[in-house]
Fold this sequence. Notes:
alpha+beta, SH3 type barrels
Amino acid sequence: MSIDIDTQNRWVLGEGVQGTAFRMCQSVRVIAGPHEGEIGELISLVAVMPEPLYHLETSNGKDLHVLQSHLAPLDAQPFHRADVFQPLRRLEAAAHVKR
C-alpha cells in the first residue's frame, strides 16, 4: 500500500506522479467519505494504487488518510447561477430607483 521513496520525493518536489491530481501543501476540502466537510492541507502521498491516498492535516489538527476521489481543491466552489444573477438583479433595481 505504501509508495517507494523515489515516488514520494517526486511528489514532494512537484515533479508529478502519474494518477495524482493534487500537490504537496495544497489546501483541500473533503467532499465524501467519513471525513466529509474537513478542510486541511496535504502533507504527503501515502499510496498511488489502486487510487491515490493522501495524508491530510486538517485545520483543527487531525491527521487523516483520504482517497483522492474524496477530495476537492479548497478554492473550487460549486457554481450556482443564483450567485451571479442575484447581485445583477440588485444592481438593476438600484439603477431603476436612481432614474
